[in-house]
Amino acid sequence: MIRQTITLRFALIAASLLVAVPAAAKPQTYERGQIFERGMVSAADPRAAEAGAEMLRAGGSATDAAIATMLALSVVEPQSSGIGGGGFYISSDARGRIETIDGRETAPKAAHPQWFWKDGAPMAMRDLVPGGTSVGVPGNLALAAKAHARHGRLPWAKLFQPAIRLARDGWVATPRFRSFLEFAKGSAAFVPEGLALFYNADGTPVAAGSTLRNPAITQTLTMLARKGAKSFYSGSNAKAIVASVNSAPRNPSAMTLADIASYRAKDRAPLCGTYRAYRVCGMGPPSSGETTVFAILGQLERFDLTALGPESPQAWHLIAEAMRLAYADRARYLGDPDFVTVPAIGLVDADYLRQRSMLIDPARTMALVTAGTPPGAEKLVRADMSAGPENGTSHFVAIDKRGNAVTYTSTVESAFGSGLVVGGYYLNNELTDFDIVPEKDGRLTANRVQGGKRPRSSMAPTLVYAPDGKLRLALGAAGGTTIPVQVVKAIIGVIDWKLSAEDAIALHTIYAPEGPTVWVEKGTALEAMIPALNALGHADVRPRQASFKANAVEVIGGKLVGAADRRSEGRAISE
């Protein structure tokens, strides 16, 4: 199957970006392209990174390693991702051919625009997250099966072995994990199964350093390894999901076995373009991540960020202004392209981004930011956005020695998702990514709830290629609507400021959505820049404690170099 790639820029991407999807699960050979001495995996938990590296040492592909990493994260990072959630997968072969798979969760057929309303009014977010109506049909297993059928080299069952060992033999609770148990007890211990997994008899979280075992997920993973991904969407597991969400102690749902059985991971056209002669590729809708990344970069390209440098308040002012414009468009236009018209090509059109960029004044902030009218846009209204710290998402990267790369973001949305536990894993609360209020000013929003629809996402797994066409960087992040910001910052850090990926990820972060408020990372150089940002017209600049979490692998001198966010427990591990 051949799919036309969505093009960005600034310049038309040539026919070499057409995506070829292999029909059979056969290992590929490469006459040309990048070859590495050893592969590498970067993930938010070292045990998950080791699970992926173990697959590489066994001769597995980058896809094998990424799947094993995702499965291990289901065990050791249940607050953030796993088989009860969904994700976006981007792969590239040694010659830079891109493929993307959408494993985003779907709403039950019974869902409707007022799915999250009660007594004729929209519910508050804190009230609608726990329980059944927030749960979408999980997509990670279907995604993994589709990717493995095309690019796997190892047997499906082998990919489960590290996760099964961790769940069966035990893993040690880290200080970060215990802090999540304290922070999100309402979700982690929402049902007795979660309370029994991670809390003492008196209701206190297990101590850091405790060895944890999960017999239920051991059994689930063993079943999936033996029977394949289809067993997740049928039989006892599907029945357990339906029973859990429909009889939830709060917000019971109306999900059916047919909703689960009909789930499919989908091929999507990659979004590719250039920034300062570097080719950047990412996930298109229903993700808003890459359109936002590209919009920010495209609007910044006319400015000399290299000359300004990372310690310049003006550089961060420019980045913040580009964010405000990009997020205004994101809020108005992005949704599931199977349900609404998403002007993805228009949002990253070269002329349109140049017009938007001209609204940015290097010496003064914009008084008012509104969405533009990109080519092909429908008159869709915006929905309010909210931003929070990294809670329920994880990103990981795998590159094998044959030059294949995978960048994969996986999520359960909030910390411990909906709080519902089935077969030892947490079910997501992804449906809260829909617009709770389905219309504004008499018009329906693009991201309103509809049966079978996938909610808008901010996940932005990304691949960056150097001007010579070779892979330079594979990256992604966790952190809700701040994900595109983290990815942009890392790309600017590597390309404009000549930093290593590790140092670029560690850079202080600014977050400026559509409104007047600008958030700066507390305790960093950006907090000290607040007076300078005020002088540029940013009247409402607020420091905020951040818990960002990004991971990357970069290519330097023909060798792979891993990077993980120093704010997290992440690690990069070589084959």
Q: Can you give me a brief rundown of this structure?
A:
By secondary structure, the protein is an alpha+beta fold. The longest helix is centred in the middle third of the chain and has 21 residues, at 313-333.
Would you mind describing this structure in some detail?
This protein is an alpha+beta fold. It folds into two domains: 47-91 and 104-264 and 418-444, no CATH class; 268-375 and 458-574, Gamma-glutamyltranspeptidase, large (L) subunit, C-terminal domain (Serum Albumin, Chain A, Domain 1, Orthogonal Bundle), CATH 1.10.246. A seven-stranded mixed beta sheet has the order 2-12-13-20-21-25-26. It has a seven-stranded antiparallel beta sheet with strand order 11-6-5-15-14-4-27. A three-stranded mixed beta sheet has the order 22-23-24. A hairpin with a 5-residue loop joins strand 5 and strand 6. Helix 12 packs across helix 14 (313-333). The radius of gyration is 22 Å and the shape is globular. The model is unreliable at 1-32 and 380-390 (pLDDT under 50).
